[in-house]
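Example 3.
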Amino acid sequence: MKAAVVIFPGSNCDRDVIHALETVSHISTQAVWHKEPSLPEGTGLVVLPGGFSYGDYLRCGAMAARSPIISAVRDHAERGGLVLGICNGFQVLTETGLLPGALLANLSLEFICSTCLLRVERTDTPFTNAFTKGQIVQFPIAHHEGLFFLPEKELEELEANRQVVFRYASADGSAGPLSSPNGALNGIAGIVNREGNVLGLMPHPERASESLLGCADGIGMWDSIKNWLEGRLN
Amino acid sequence: METVERRGGIGMKFRAHIRVSLKEGVLDTQGKAVRVSLKNMGFGNVEEVRVGKSIAITLDAKSREEAEKQVEAMCDDLLVNSLIETHSLTLEAI
């Protein structure tokens, strides 16, 4: 079981993800430069990390989504391999079309850097099986373009297909737009594709993977991925 | 997109002006903020502000049709996200 973390020019959370995967969760992890044409042999999980790929020029994630490595990431996803996009990685996934939607500027027009509560909406995914349904977890957010947007009809389909995995929440467990720090529609913080093997989320699980960092809820995501890749769920 | 000759041509030079704007119904937070500022400055009659972007591209092409085809391909492939944006294009020979 191996993970690959793609580094684009301007990525800045790649080392945090590698640390969380390798040092904290003992998942063998390799960094992959975006110009590589292929992923390392035996890759089970691809992570597109946070940062400001290509300086966020044109649209966040737009140019990274046209990088050479992306066709290999697309093939990996089509074969059922796991793909996780965090923050800018989520923006890249929407720009590739591997996930629906777009991330617009936060409602407040401010860059928001804070801790954040999320409600786990699904536990039947490769990324969330170690959580309990409705569990409130704390991952930090740090973004300027995090307002999840989809036109009304597509948004209804997304909800009907149960593709929302994480929603911004309040401490009392209520979730939705009112708990959303960035104005995301329906309070959406993270979604999967129809097949469930591609997840994108704005909050950062890798920054919540050690108690030293103030919270270790993110470990639940790495444990979930390990469970899935090591076939412990069936 | 394979049918589009990407190397450019020899001969004519064109300048394309692409105006990209957010689609109706897509929340324009920048536009809203600018509207509030304009109101605070005394422009109370401003009803709505939409902020977009303008992209100018200079290119060589064999003909106007070829240039237009190429710029439209650039819009489809990278410059415009059709989920949230629309664009208009003008092309001038230079």
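The two ends of chain A are 17 Å apart (CA to CA). Residues 14-24 of chain A form the longest helix (11 residues).
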